[in-house]
Specification:
alpha+beta; 13 helices
């Protein structure tokens, strides 16, 4: 039985897939009409199912805006069944393009226009030809584990996962399969999400974002001359000594040159985010705890470029294999990097020799003799479905191209939230492993003064027999405000992430003549509903005559409130629901995932500090901040009495931290700094209450740190500072009275000098 459990767990590493849904992942797809992609080798090695991916459609994002990167990974992360790292990167360059054909870009320049494949726009390309040529001719890293795989060559295009050296676009297989990569790469790191956050310091310090790379630099003409000579043997060394020993004869008879061991500078940008993965379920396409795809909110960098792409890699290995064990690694190298020292015998009471005789070894498809004394003397072997090329494996998906542009001047320093659509036409069986339509994000929290940028992109080449409304084969989406809800939402529904109850509203749009959408104009509502500008009339009942692309541009939210909206075309039985909600609140809200590595969470008047080890798991920390008046209203709204709060004057904003109960590891505590609102009162007290009821206020011990009160705590809840003096209130009242006297005296003098003004106000009822 133990053997079967081990085998099943090993098999988890064999068929894992990862698919990116926002921005739209390609999985090597371009614009195919069928459910299967035409060419799995078009741009990169995804290792994914042929049916994944979305047809091409490009968007642009403003630098500094927030983009939810959303994906599903089939075989778990944040779970003991497997070791998992998700590495998210991006690249920009004038050569980056989607192309117009599903054919793989040629390796021979003679097959490209102008004998230059880098500029032949027919072919999709991320990495360029120069990069691949360097990879193809460079010595592979010999200390990489190859198990019992027979590599067909010794350059960087041959790996345990790619032993035949198969080419996919201009990707470098060795760089693709391993992270962090030791050579120069065009990919800039966004985030590393890992099962083991103790590796984060290593990932961050080794990232090319902050650390330069060294490599052997040889003339391009020399590489071209050698591209077919010694086809499977390296031309470019990967050590300084061997590089500088390379002698290149001058064809014209001049002096010979030598290889140069060259430093390639870092990207000089921030180290990548590194933290634990959110948990996802295995064998379930990777949905998270709340049944939603996992995501990462990426703040778009100031890398202004019309041609960018995101890459997501899913590095996974079976839970039994100790790939990060230094002793095991040393033994692997000592054994010639072929035989595995993985112990699959002692747990079954076998010696190493017995295990070898009976097939208990880590190799391809071993035949295992399960019994030595079987009933009736019968004995037999069972073959295990093990593929050593796959038990440690890398999957990936890449987006179609997008642009990063400077935000419009009216945005200024305000935050911009991107609101997009994921999924494609069809029911879940027809689109799997893609998904049906939904808005991304479908729960969006904003503040007045911030901007929302609505963009959709679809396709006219979906399979014609896929379910959906409107013209066959087409993707279309719009936004129409919903009528009011029939049923109230649960208590605290607007404040508890993923804890919504009730429903978004009737599946019928509002009459927009009297509708309000958080301060947007009526013309904005018309444009969102009928996809203007860009479309003028035509058959728009199901958006058939609209184009595949819609762009609202950043729109400013000017008022608080809640807007529920839908897509009128796709909110049908097949797709079930394409609805969304935007909550605009004057409260400051901050969501930040914090794990073992710690970190800070801030609002305008508070800061949480988590030291390394404060948490032993990833926790989504949420802070709400209310002004004193907002806090009093919130207390009343929850059925409490703000007058029950001890003290005569509120000296800080109200801060609510979620989770509200203890969530730290063991007896660890985090620091909460709560800043005062300019008070000079010495008699200060800090209190805590449960934000669900506000029935009991508990006094909390603090230390004063400048203009802040600091506490050490292991729990969330609502915190506030009060003062035991009413000096500020009295001073305010005195000042208010003085101002009133001045205004009254001034008004008397003014109206005595202008009696006509007084009579005019009286007639209009203004006085």
């Amino acid at each position: 039985m133990k053997l079967l459990v081990t085998v099943l767990t090993m098999l988890i590493g064999v068929q894992a897939d990862v698919y990116m849904h926002n921005p739209r992942g390609s999985n090597n797809r371009l614009d195919e009409n069928g459910r299967e992609r035409n060419n799995g080798n078009r741009m990169f090695d995804s290792q994914n199912n042929n049916r994944g991916g979305y047809n091409v459609g490009s968007l642009y994002y403003s630098a500094g805006s927030v983009l939810p990167i959303e994906w599903t990974n089939q075989h778990s992360c944040g779970d003991p069944n497997s070791h998992c790292e998700l590495v998210i990167q991006y690249m920009c360059g004038e050569w980056v393009r989607d192309g117009t054909t599903t054919t793989t870009i040629p390796e021979n320049p003679n097959q490209c226009y102008n004998y230059d494949c880098n500029t032949d726009i027919r072919y999709g390309m991320n990495e360029n030809f120069d990069y691949y040529l360097n990879c193809k001719l460079r010595q592979r890293q010999a200390n990489l584990f190859t198990a019992d795989q027979n590599l067909k060559g010794q350059t960087a295009k041959y790996t345990r996962q790619n032993p035949q050296g198969t080419r996919r676009g201009y990707e470098c297989p060795e760089e693709r399969d391993y992270y962090p990569y030791w050579g120069p790469s065009p990919w800039m790191d966004i985030a590393v999400l890992t099962n083991d956050p103790t590796r984060c310091e290593y990932y961050q310090t080794e990232s090319q974002n902050v650390k330069s790379r060294w490599a052997c630099d040889l003339p391009f003409s020399y590489l071209q001359e050698n591209i077919n000579a010694n086809r499977n043997n390296p031309v470019i060394p990967n050590t300084k000594e061997e590089c500088e020993a390379v002698t290149i004869e001058n064809a014209a008879g001049g002096n010979s040159t030598r290889g140069v061991w060259k430093e390639f500078p870092s990207f000089n940008i921030s180290a990548p985010i590194c933290r634990e993965n959110h948990w996802s379920r295995d064998n379930h396409l990777g949905n998270g705890v709340n049944g939603q795809p996992n995501n990462l909110n990426w703040t778009i960098p100031n890398t202004i470029n019309e041609n960018c792409v995101v890459r997501l890699r899913y590095n996974i290995s079976t839970g039994e294999y100790p790939g990060w064990d230094g002793t095991v690694t040393a033994e692997l190298n000592a054994q010639g990097n072929q035989d595995s020292p993985l112990d699959v015998f002692s747990k079954y009471g076998l010696t190493e020799d017995e295990a070898d005789d009976r097939g208990y070894v880590f190799e391809n498809n071993p035949n295992v003799q399960m019994f030595t004394d079987a009933p009736n003397g019968d004995n037999f072997n069972l073959q295990l479905a093990i593929n050593t090329a796959q038990l440690g494996r890398t999957f990936q998906d890449r987006s179609h191209t997008f642009a990063i542009r400077a935000p419009p001047p009216e945005v200024g320093e305000n935050k911009v939230h991107n609101l997009n659509v994921r999924g494609k036409r069809g029911n879940i069986v027809q689109v799997f492993p893609a998904v049906e339509y939904d808005f991304v994000p479908n729960e969006l929290a904003v503040m007045p003064g911030e901007f929302i940028h609505v963009q959709f992109t679809g396709s006219n080449s979906n399979p014609n027999n896929n379910d959906g409304q409107g013209r066959q084969g087409t993707d279309r989406s719009n936004i129409a405000l919903l009528r009011d809800q029939n049923y109230p939402e649960g208590t605290g529904a607007y404040y508890q992430p993923n804890g919504m109850t009730g429903q978004y509203g009737n599946s019928y749009p509002q009459d927009i003549r009297n509708a309000s959408f958080l301060g947007l104009t009526q013309q904005d509502l018309i444009d969102l509903a009928v996809l203007q500008p860009g479309q003028f009339r035509g058959e728009m009942s199901e958006l058939d005559d609209a184009g595949t692309y819609y762009d609202s541009g950043p729109r400013k939210i000017t008022m608080p409130g809640t807007a529920h909206y839908m897509c009128t075309r796709n909110n049908n039985f097949s797709n079930r629901s394409q609805k969304g909600r935007i909550v605009s609140s004057i409260e400051q809200v901050n969501y930040t995932p914090i794990g073992y590595r710690g970190g800070n969470v801030t609002t305008g008047h508070s800061e949480l500090n988590f030291r390394i080890g404060t948490l032993d798991h990833l926790e989504d920390i949420k802070i709400l901040e209310w002004t004193p008046n907002q806090g009093r209203w919130e207390i009343e709204n929850k059925g409490g009495n703000p007058d029950d709060l001890p003290g005569q004057k509120i000296e800080s904003n109200f801060i609510t931290v979620y989770p509200t109960t203890k969530f730290t590891a063991n007896d660890e505590k985090f620091t909460l700094n709560l800043y005062l609102n300019g008070s000079t009162t010495d008699n200060l007290e800090m209190y805590r209450a449960d934000p669900d009821t506000f029935t009991t206020w508990e006094k909390v011990e603090y230390t004063k740190q400048g203009n802040a009160l600091a506490i050490e705590t292991d729990s969330g809840g609502t915190y506030v500072v009060t003062g035991s003096t009413n000096a500020g209130t009295i001073a305010g009242a005195v000042i208010g009275c003085l101002i009133a006297v001045v205004l009254i005296v001034g008004a008397i003098v003014y109206f005595r000098m202008h009696p006509d003004k007084l009579s005019g106000l009286t007639k209009t009822g203004q006085v």
